Amino acid sequence: PKSIEAATGAKEVTMGFPPKEYQSDKEYFRAMGSGKSPDKEDARRIADLSAGRQLGAIIKQTIRSSMNDFTQTLSGNAKQDYEQAFNQSSWQFVDQTLTSATVKNEKMFLETDKTYTCYVIKQISTQPILDGVSNQISQDKKLEINYDKKKFAEEIEKEKQQMAEDRKNNK
After folding, report:
1. Phi/psi at 49 (nearest 5 deg)?
2. CB 124 within 8 A of CB 102
3. Which of 17, 46, 76, 92 could bridge across to 21 with cysteines, CB 3.0–4.6 Å?
4. Interval 10-21: pLDDT, tens
5. Using CA atoms, how far apart are residues 121 and 94, in angstroms rounded to an integer?
6. Half-sphere exposure (CA, 13 Å, Cβ side) for 29?
7. Percent of the residues in the chain that have a pLDDT greater than 90, as a whole number
8. Among the residues of the chain, which ranges form H helices?
9. What predicted TM-score, i.e. pTM, was given to this entire model?
10. Does the CA dihedral 57-59-100-108 come out positive or negative?
11. What is the pLDDT of residue 165?
12. DSSP string of 100-116?
């Protein structure tokens, strides 16, 4: 059997970092972004923004997955109202918290066409995010009625464990 490269002429492109370096785990949400520009600082800014957007998406998906179990017990308008209130409250908190994400690693490359390509890994600790979302829910009277803090913590722990397993399997 021919390799993809031999069969199609395609060339494999490697990312700036190995996956184990930018995958989320139990302790940190992580994401990698890249940026390309003739200006080094612009390439860095683009990569930073890209990593921040990716990080927000990963956090929101993790929380959304955990909250699906709660809304399964609700029906009709109650479910829709709960999801809408939850999304508004928690996404606003997540977006505000993303400003505290830190750069874990960064690489800059000067390409043959004299442009710069930058790769950035951003990370943020999982616990403050999850505690903050839980507090947001507790402060919202509409959400708190159906909120089970212990169940939410269990679901989040399952998601974090899954991230750790996924990372272990990708090493």
Report:
1. -65, -40
2. yes
3. 17
4. 776 777 888 888
5. 18
6. 27
7. 35
8. 4-8, 19-22, 40-72, 76-97, 126-139, 141-144, 149-169
9. 0.77
10. negative
11. 77
12. G-EEEEEEEEE-TTS-E
Token pair recorded at residue 46:
């683009």
What secondary structure letter does DSSP report for 73?
Answer: T
What are the distances in angstroms from CA 76 to CA 7, 83, 144?
53, 11, 18
Whole-angstrom distance, CA of residue 103 vs CA of residue 99: 11
**DSSP tag of 26:** S
Residues 6+ apart with CB under 8 A from 52: 31, 33, 98, 101, 122
**Residue 48 corresponds to which amino acid?**
D
Structure tokens at 85: 């209130």
Q: pLDDT tens, 67-87?
A: 776 667 666 777 777 777 777
- CA torsion sign for 156, 162, 168, 171 is negative
Residue 102: pLDDT band (50, 70, 90) is very high
- What pLDDT does 109 receive? 94
- Residues near 26 by beta carbon (within 8 Å), at least 6 away in sequence: 126, 160, 161, 163, 164
The predicted structure's pLDDT at residue 142: 66
| Alpha carbons 8 and 130: distance in angstroms, whole number | 45
Q: What does the buried/exposed string (b/e) look like for 150-168 if buried means 16 or more CB atoms within 10 Å of the residue's CB?
A: eebeebbeebbeebeeebe
